[in-house]
Write a structure and sequence with these properties.
Residues 320-437 form the AP-5 complex subunit zeta-1 ARM repeats domain. Residues 449-737 form the AP-5 complex subunit zeta-1 C-terminal TPR domain. Residues 731-753 are annotated as: Disordered. With 784 residues, the protein is an all-alpha fold. Among the domains are: 169-191 and 211-253 and 288-383, no CATH class; 386-488 and 502-614, no CATH class; 622-684 and 693-727, no CATH class. It is built from 38 helices and no strands. The protein has helices at 4-15, 18-32, 39-53, 63-74, 80-93, 109-121, 128-141, 150-163, 170-185, 234-244, 246-252, 266-271, 273-277, 289-307, 315-338, 341-357, 364-381, 385-400, 404-416, 425-430, 432-441, 443-457, 463-471, 473-485, 503-510, 515-521, 534-539, 547-567, 573-586, 596-614, 618-621, 623-630, 640-653, 664-683, 695-709, 716-731, 733-736, 764-771. α21 packs across α24 (473-485) and α33 (640-653) packs parallel to α35.
Length: 784
């Protein structure tokens, strides 16, 4: 969330029209043509960047302005702040056909990195990525390792390796591997010199001190990203940047090339058991550059794990320890998959690390890469990965659902590692109530992630419970809000909407009478039972206006469609019947969030028809339940889309064509129920408490009655009379005036239709049938 001032600036930037932007660009063009690029130019470029980045659509700048931005970026004496602003604007405009940056003529290393970032943002036009990569490599080859250029060019090289892995040749890969070994292993252990000293400072006072650890102790081992100091030398900065690109480089320069580790070959791991057991340290023999880099990378990660045991003096260093642990475990995972001999050497420290961190709430993000490591290598390493997964899915979502970063990383971990859950997929599927807590609290950013993950979670054994949970998702959001409000140790910054006062809801949350329902709603895993949460819907109604609840409600229809698409692939006949019954039963039991029910009804109605199409005999098998559903007109107008689908399905599938068990008695019972329903909706008067009935409901009712009559000869005269009455009713002035009567006119029969709607909308076929001498005799009866 932005502050009020930031929101105001963004709103102003989005409201600027093209004409205003054109005038502003003209002013910037004049400023860029002057020799003095002062504060006014900086301020104007900052405003321009805000304008073009505040909108989703592409802003258009004048070609002259773009050319001047490129020229300013290429000026050797241009201030660094202006170069960065020009780069940001040009990247935001990418892809742009007007760009013509001269890569070959740029000499300054910082300018090279900025120009390269703009070219890479263009996409791989005319093999731009390959050209940038070769240009960076030429710059790296032409300078000494301690030169100042590497610090700015390494991030560009890392990006090139990710975007175009085949850019580098064999000798270039070997060269960069050697450089990385030097930067990672042999960086200086002395702090850098100060940039300038005072007149009275002595040479002894200006001598740099030693590098220290995060706990203040003097470093005795080699330099890493967790080493601290007041100033860093160039090779120390290269050490930090080298570690940041190490994992991508290892994947690129692996023994089988880029992308070779995306597959999970269990037989290869089993075949490498001998090499794991007989692994020995290779420090005493001369290794090829790639193997030497892997050895140094392993030592570097081991050193980071050792440094993470130290107690950091500053909070920033403590956060950095956790971030480095995440990266170190991921690098070790890559190393063990490339060379199984590292697995034997990594297990002891990683097991100890997992045992130390699993009880620390502040280190939960490190547990995700650890879990991936044990899932990848657990069978070979004799690690109980099932216990690791059980702990991961049980505690973390329940305790940390309100952390947006952890929520995204957790769901991304589940989505990206589905192939590793082959033997533990049941643990993942049974944990869907806990995973839904992440979704309920962070629904806007996680909806797309769950669209990909939900098909893997859908299972025939938990389908019904999961569907209930999806329909109750806004209610879960409200319950999580109350759980945080009731926390005995709330955070300094409340995680809930402080403007919403809900004392009655808090009292209900603490009431022992409702503890069972709240515990079921907040359960950590699938229980195998289904509780009706209608009482909680009423208790938590005051929270329906909460913004977080409303956002969650908006995501449910999309997730319902994904769920049904997945579950119908594994549903048998019995489950299909149960799903259809659940749709009917939950149609009058939804959380009362604004607009929520209407959106859900549209999905339920389409999915009911899909279930009937999947199993047409469903109508005959569920005849009693369908008759009960149609037996009441309460809420028909609000559930019009679902009622319409049910009635249409009866007319379409209640036939011996689809099920030989269909009998005349069943057809007669449905006919009587639908006839009574049609009579009620056409005779009732619209009012404030009883809204008008949509005309499509009446239309579908008459269609279905006609279809049923064509399958039972005894119903033909009755239906003919009914259609005649409906024709007279539709042609009466009362139905077309929507209930507005002229003075002195006797009130006639009324239709429960909205004003300006008539019964004749959408059913001219019925008028033709009613006008024919004996319309129903034209069709043959299916049943005698």
């Amino acid at each position: 969330m932005f502050s009020a001032g930031a929101e105001s600036l963004l709103h102003q930037a989005r409201e600027i029209q093209e004409e205003e932007l054109k005038k502003f660009c003209s002013r910037i063009s004049k400023l860029l043509q002057t020799e003095d690029l002062g504060p006014d130019t900086v301020d104007s470029l900052q405003r321009l960047f805000l304008i073009i980045s505040a909108t989703k659509y592409h802003r258009r700048l004048e070609k002259m302005c773009i050319d001047l931005l490129q020229a300013t970026l290429s000026l050797p004496a241009c201030p660094e702040q202006l170069q960065v602003l020009c780069t940001a604007i040009l990247r935001e405009m990418s892809p742009c056909d007007s760009l013509s940056l001269a890569w070959d003529h740029t000499q300054n290393s910082r300018q090279l990195s900025l120009v390269a970032s703009v070219l890479l943002a263009q996409g791989d036009r005319n093999e731009e990525v390959r050209a940038v990569g070769q240009g960076v490599l030429r710059a790296l080859e032409s300078r000494q390792p301690e030169g100042p250029s590497f610090r700015h060019l390494l991030p560009v090289m890392a990006k090139v390796v990710v975007l175009s892995p085949g850019t580098l040749q064999e000798d270039q890969t070997t060269l960069l591997s050697k450089r990385l070994v030097d930067w990672l292993r042999y960086a200086s252990l002395q702090q850098g010199f100060p940039h300038s000293g005072s007149f009275f400072s002595t040479p002894r006072a200006r001598q740099p001190g030693p590098i220290t650890e995060v706990d203040g102790a003097v470093a005795t081992d080699f330099f890493t990203v967790l080493s601290t100091g007041h100033r860093f030398t160039e090779d120390q900065w290269l050490n930090v940047q080298g570690f940041s690109m190490l994992r991508a480089w290892l994947l690129h320069s692996g023994p089988e090339g880029p992308g070779a580790l995306d597959t999970d070959d269990g037989s290869e791991q089993e075949g490498s058991m001998l090499s794991v057991i007989s692994a020995t340290s290779s420090a005493g023999r001369l290794l090829p550059p790639r193997e030497r880099l892997r050895e140094v990378a392993f030592e570097y990660c081991q050193r980071l794990i050792e440094q993470s045991n130290r107690r950091a003096l500053r909070k920033g260093d403590s956060d950095l320890q956790k971030a480095c642990l995440v990266e170190a475990v991921l690098v070790l995972d890559v190393l063990c998959r490339q060379d199984p001999s590292f697995l034997y050497r990594s297990l002891s420290c990683l097991k100890a690390l997992h045992g130390r961190l699993q009880g620390d709430p502040a280190s939960v993000r490190v547990l995700l890469p650890l879990a991936r490591f044990f899932l990848s290598h657990g069978e070979v390493a004799a690690v109980d990965s099932e216990a690791v997964c059980r702990h991961l899915f049980t505690r973390i979502p329940s305790e940390q659902f309100h952390s947006p970063m952890l929520a995204f990383e957790f769901i991304q971990f589940c989505r990206d590692n589905l192939h590793l859950f082959a033997g533990h997929l049941s643990t993942l599927r049974l944990s869907f109530p806990n995973l839904f807590k992440f979704l309920a609290w962070n629904s806007p950013p996680l909806t797309s992630e769950f669209v990909e993950l939900l098909p893997a979670l859908a299972d025939a054994g938990t389908a019904l419970e999961m569907l209930h949970a999806l329909l109750d998702l806004p209610c879960l959001t409200a319950a999580l809000d109350l759980q945080l409000r009731s926390s005995p140790a709330p955070s300094e910054r409340p995680l809930w909407d402080t403007s919403l006062r809900v004392p009655s809801c808090l009292e209900a949350f603490r009431d022992p009478k409702f503890q069972g329902l709240f515990q079921y709603l907040l359960r950590p895993k699938a229980s195998g039972t289904i509780e009706r949460l209608a009482p909680l819907h009423q208790l938590l109604q005051p929270m329906a206006s909460c913004a977080r609840v409303a956002q969650c409600a908006e995501a449910v229809p999309t997730l319902l469609q994904v769920f049904f698409s997945a579950v119908t692939q594994v549903a048998d006949g019995a489950l299909t019947n149960q799903l259809a019954l659940l749709l009917l039963g939950r149609s009058d039991s939804l959380y009362p969030a604004p607009g929520y029910a209407a959106c859900v009804y549209r999905v339920l109605s389409s999915q009911f028809l899909a279930l009937c199409k999947l199993k047409p005999s469903l109508v005959v098998e569920l005849a009693r339940d369908l008759l009960e559903f149609l037996g009441s007109v309460n809420g028909l107008c609000s559930r019009a889309s679902l009622v319409t689908s049910v009635v249409w399905a009866i007319g379409e599938y209640l036939s011996v064509t689809y099920d030989r068990r269909c009998t005349v008695e069943q057809i007669n019972k449905f006919f009587e129920a639908l006839e009574a329903l049609l009579f009620e909706v056409t005779q009732c008067r619209p009012s404030a408490t009883l809204p008008s009935c949509p005309p499509q409901v009446v239309t579908v009712l008459m269609t279905t009655l006609t279809k049923l009559a064509s399958r039972s000869q005894d119903l033909i005269p009755r239906t003919s009379l009914l259609l005649s009455k409906m024709r007279n009713l539709a042609q009466s002035p009362a139905s077309s005036t929507g209930g507005h009567e002229s003075p002195g006119r006797e009130a006639g029969p009324r239709l429960g239709l909205a004003p300006s709607e008539t019964l004749t909308q959408g059913w001219p076929l019925f008028i033709l049938w009613a006008l024919s001498p004996s319309p129903l005799l034209l069709g043959h009866a299916e049943l005698s």
